[in-house]
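Our consortium's second objective concerns turning raw sequence data into structural hypotheses that experimental partners can test. To show how far this objective has progressed, the report includes one record in full. It was chosen at random from the queue rather than selected for favorable results. The single chain below, 142 residues long, was entered without modification.
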Amino acid sequence: MTFEEIQELFLQGIDCSQVVAGAFADELEADKKLLRKVSASFGGGMQCGETCGAVTGALMVLGMKYGHSEEGDTGQKQIMMQKTGEFKRLFGERYPSCICRELLGHDISKKEELAKVMEQGLLLQFCPKVVEDTLEILGKII
C-alpha cells in the first residue's frame, strides 16, 4: 500500500489501526470490513493518545496469524510472543516510542492538541508514514 493510498484512507475516515488491520485481510483470510470494525476503536492511540493505532493494528494482525486459542497451547503462544517481540524490536528501530502522543508530540485526546496536530499536517503526513512503515515491518514478519 502506498503512502498516498494510506493518506486517502485517512481522508475517508479510516484510522491508522483500521488501515493496518484491513491491509492484511487476504493474508489472514478474513473479511476486511470485519477487521476494520474490530480495530475501529484503536485509532489515535485508543482515542486517548496511548499506544499508536498502527501498532495495535499490527498486534491484532499478529494475533490473528500466530495467536493461540486453545488452553495449554504454549508452543503457539511462544510463536506469537516471538513474532510480537520481533515487531516491537523493528518498530523501535524506527521510532523512539509506540505511544501516540509521544510520537506526535501532542495529545490528540485534547481538543486544542488535536488542532495543533491538524495545523501542522501531522495527521496526513507523519501518521501515514508510521502506517506505511508498520505495513512494511509486518510484511517482513508474516
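The partners drew two points from this record. The mean pLDDT is 96. DSSP finds ten helices and no strands in the chain. Both points have been shared with the crystallography group to help prioritize constructs.
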